[in-house]
Amino acid sequence: MTHFPFSMSDKTDGTGSDAGILTKTKTRTQRPPMYKVMLLNDDYTPMEFVVHVLERFFGLTHAQAFDIMLTVHKKGLAVVGVFSFEVAETKVAQVMDFARRHQHPLQCTMEKE
Ligand code: TYC
């Protein structure tokens, strides 16, 4: 009397017959955690530089990039995209490196969604 999705885990009750112990294993599909990549405002990085960064590393149109730059400027920060851990890590590193090479204090961070 054993029916799917149950399986018998123990058929050794000493009598050689079915002990009737049922176990059920749940299989849950895990979605990978996603990470928000954020840009932080500062008083020195030129607006055009931030717009360029958003176009270059996040594939945004000029209008989208300008909107997000203004949101960061006005609110202090904004989410610029949501990515897998590895992609988010790469974007943050690319932005931080590009800003450093141009001697701008622009900060880019990531946070688990
Ligand atoms: N606040 C900067 C300025 O007035 C512009 C700026 C926007 C800087 C967004 C950083 O992430 C940033 N020049």
Give your account of this protein's structure.
The relative contact order is 0.21. The chain is built from 3 helices and 5 strands; from the N terminus they run βββααβαβ. The two termini are 46 Å apart. It is elongated. The longest helix is centred in the last third of the chain and has 17 residues, at 85-101. The strands form 2 sheets. The protein has a 3-stranded antiparallel sheet. The chain has 113 residues and is an alpha+beta fold. The chain binds L-tyrosinamide. Residues 39-43, 45-47, 50, 69, 72-73, 106 line the site of L-tyrosinamide.
The helix content, as a percent range, equals: 25-40%
The residue ranges in which pLDDT falls below 50 over 5 or more consecutive positions are 1-16
Largest beta sheet: what is the strand line-up? 4-3-5
Bound molecules: L-tyrosinamide
The arrangement of helices and strands along the chain is EEEHHEHE
Rg of Cα set: 26 Å
The shape, in one word, is elongated
What's the story with the biggest beta sheet?
3 strands, antiparallel
| Sheet/helix structural class | alpha+beta
How many distinct helices? 3
Gap between N and C termini: 46 Å
DSSP strand tally:
5
Determine the mean pLDDT.
88
How large is the share of residues in beta strands?
Answer: 15-25%
